[in-house]
Amino acid sequence: MAKVELSITPEDDDIRVEVRCLDSDLHGKDAELVLLFVAEVKDKRPVHSERELLRRKFKLSGAPHTLHCNGAQLARHYGHDGKQLALKLVARLEVDDGILFDSKFKAEHLLPLQGGARPLQGDPKQMDPKDVFSFIANVAVLPARNKMIVLGLLIVGGFVVLGNLVLGFHDEFVPEAQTYFYDHTGDDGSESPIMKALMGSGAAGAGIWMAIMFQLRQYMRFQMKAHPPIGRDSRLRLSDLIEGESKVRLENVVVRVVACNRECGQYKRGSGTKERTVSFRNPINAVMLYERRILQIPAHRPLGMYIDGEVDFRPMFDLLLPPLMLSSSHGIDVAWEVQFLHPKFVDHELDGDCGALAWEDFVPDGRPAFPEHAARG
Asked: How many Å is the maximal CA-CA distance in the chain?
């Protein structure tokens, strides 16, 4: 096999890509080099995203061929090797040396984070605490109208799910001409009516459960207030971030403000006309910014009267990775939320606004730099 060495080396103010052709049979051949920053999804059917930084055509020779990419293009980039996503520099070289297939070579590099690596040490489960609640106790405190809606959803949902399964079982064991709803064929050949019914019942059940959960949260009003953009020096009273009131007396609640990094990407599922693209945003690191336990909140009183203390946002910028999104669906983002956790009722979460977060607040120095070690997940 033709031998070509391809390397990527970050320097003070640029990225150097070097091509060494060690096979004299390739000297004089046309080659094309592409330097990319890639968001690589780790899945059996991934959907990747990439950003082209450099593309050059040249002829291979016995002398090393060096190309330079302006480091300013990567001043706000860094490498990441996480559970579901990798962010890396990739150099791809294609040599025109074949009739049907050309030789291809690749080199990869994890760019270090400006200012040094940041270990992912916070528990990501803090962003999605387990919601343990009593369904009966929660329904009992709801206003009459919401109780009736929950009861109606349970009745209707039960009929829809069970009726759909009965249809599936019937259609499974009768000839195609005698089916009521589910046929025996699909886009990729024969399909089981029972499996179709199970999938339909699962989707219907999930939708109905989401509607029920929405009703269970109606024991209180809980919403985000308008507030200044969040920055590195932001210290805001929690009562300036949220507002609301409960329709019943609440006891032993916990209020938290948590921030995290999330790996964002996409993958494919299904096949044929049923193929779909699934997006994910999974927490990988988290930091607690605020936590208070409130022993009692009377009914119909503003929450602000019982929530004290400030939220210091500086740890979010010190400990989390800066946001780095290659597209709306791929990269690493930052999220923060306010959590209202009750021991018997369904919890509430409010998403914070991250639209104005600045890279310079995460890396205050602001100068392009390539420290020795890469940031790894």
From this structure: 84
| pTM listed for this prediction | 0.82
Residue linked to tokens 């306010």: 338
Predicted confidence (pLDDT) per residue in 26-46, tens digit: 898 899 999 999 999 999 999
**Which ranges in 17-134 belong to alpha helices (H)?**
none
- What pLDDT does residue 373 have? 33
Cα atoms in the 13 Å half-sphere on the side-chain side of 237: 10
Amino acid making up residue 6: L
Structure tokens at 98: 């074949």
Residue pLDDT, tens place only, 196-252: 767 777 788 889 999 999 999 999 999 999 999 999 999 999 999 999 999 999 999
Is-contact 39 20, C-beta < 8 A? Answer: no
d(CA 25, CA 41): 36
Answer yes or no: is pLDDT of 146 > 80: yes
Give the residues across from 49 on adjacent strands: 39
Question: What are phi and psi for residue 88, nearest 5 degrees?
Answer: -155, 160
